[in-house]
Amino acid sequence: MNKSKRASAVRETVKEYAAISFGILLVAIGVYFFKFPNRISTGGVTGIAVVLAQIFPAVSQSDFVLIFNIFFLILGFAVLGRDFGFKTVYGSLLLSGFLELFDLIMHAAGAPADLLPLTVTAANPAGEPVLELFFAVAFPAAGAAILFYNHGSSGGTDIVAMIIHKYTSVDSGKALLLSDLVLVLFTFWDFEKGEFAATVGLLSLAGLVAKAVAVDVMIAGINQSKYHMIITTHREEVEAYITKKLKRGATVWRCEGAYTHGEEYALVAVMSRAQSYLFRRFIKQIDPKSFVIVTNSSDILGKGFKQV
Length: 308
Hints:
Blueprint: H1 3-38, H2 44-55, H3 61-80, H4 86-108, H5 129-149, H6 157-167, H7 172-186, E1 189-190, E2 195-196, H8 198-223, E3 225-232, H9 235-245, E4 251-256, E5 263-271, H10 273-286, E6 291-297
Antiparallel strand pairs: 1-2, 3-5, 3-6, 4-5
């Protein structure tokens, strides 16, 4: 590998890990400041921590996340060996590190060991649980989408999914969904007060459903590009704009109009949303009679997009 390729590979790796770090930070913010104070569990290691911290109040939720992440990492190394990705190790330890860091910062600032929901005030002691739920889902979902796009992971029960996938024919996604649902059911009971907790349980159940939808929507949003089919008589101008101005590739076919039987050209090009806006403005000026089909696509593989 020559120096330029090596430098390019290093830059890509740095960008990838920077994105993974940012994704983990978003997950940690959602978990620490919104899930933990409201005791919302949508499954995973943080869901286990929410439940166990009520049964064993001497151990903080952040500590439980650290304990279980280390346990699953050891399990992963023991069972999966070299198939166990470094990005999973990095994401798992970084999530635990962020949560422990938040603990240190909040305690240094004089915050109580059990944080109150951010929307709780003297004038509004009940807070705004639905608003809290929104951010408890939105931050981790955005972080999970970034991790997925960069082939990263926050570890925890993702490691269990890897093991299930490798050694059984059981659908790991369904198995984890079932375990998440069990953890959600535990939130219907307040272990500290020994009473039924309908509000927290229903919020957790709603969060579990919303999380699945939100992650899919955000992954599609991050990946989204615009697929264009352009029928035009101004081939050279359109082709030059796409390749030289937008720096995108295009495929061209010579074709014949079914109504006029005149010679036309069909171009196929894929570009970002911002580039699509510029292109549509250009095509309107250069060829108002052109016919353009624009389709959303969230999975483009090839040069300039995701690697095959």
